[in-house]
Specification:
Distance between the termini: 77 Å
Number of strands: 5
Oligomer: single chain
Helix content: 40-55%
Structural class: alpha/beta
Order of helices and strands: EHEHEHHEHEHHHHH
Number of helices: 10
CATH superfamily: HUPs
Bound molecules: iron/sulfur cluster
CATH architecture: 3-Layer(aba) Sandwich
Strand order of the largest sheet: 3-2-1-4-5
Radius of gyration: 20 Å
CATH class: Alpha Beta
Number of domains: 1
Mean pLDDT: 96
Length: 250
Amino acid sequence: MGRPKFIASVSFGKDSLATVLLAKEHDEPLDEAVYCEVMFDKDISGEVPEHRDFIYDTAIPKLEEMGVRIIVLRSAKTYVDLFTGRVTRGPKKSMVRSFPICGRCAVQRDCKVRPIQRYQKTLPPETVKYIGIARDETERLLRLENGRQVSLLAKYNFTEQDAWQLCDSAGLLSPVYAFTGRGGCWFCPNAKMPELRHLYDHHPDLWARMLALQAIPGKTTEKFNRTQKFSDIDAVFRQEDGEAALRQAA
Ligand code: SF4
């Protein structure tokens, strides 16, 4: 009987990329790296554009050069499909589903977890999955399924900071780390203000799409995150810009 299949689950953040780099460096078995791309609509990625460009223009070509086979998964459903879908039963029946709920993100479930689960069903049951969890993430390490999920970062004693350095020295550190510490969709309800400000400043086309979604009538909720509408955040940034312009003029 041959060895089981080994796959790395990658987001192209520092921890998953450092895992692939460690696998190559230490000659660990690695058959493929699996990435699931959430889409905003059928043409626009849900990845922050700088990260998306890094994935396709830098990371995938480099990993392929190193002999790593990359599998890209996408759900047929997009953020916009989920947002504009209608509730089919209950008191909110026929309303527009609207923004995903913080902590219970339907995008995570339908656009990320489901395609991965569907793919995993095609793999042999004994497949081993490398997960990018650093040795200093003790609680997450404890949740790994024994034998089926393996952290190479823990095996080689790598902290999150070490993972950062390894990616940086390999030219494989995503530019998103210049303005955020977390990965995730650019429309994420968990996004912090600096991430949203980055989107507002650098990607006005994407910002305008969110404002257009906010304007759709008959939604189950008007709130983008736990407390604010997207248009409230827009108003805050506009006010900040107005105040900065006044200070400059003074
Ligand atoms: S990053 Fe945010 S929006 Fe994207 S799937 Fe995860 S929780 Fe949902």
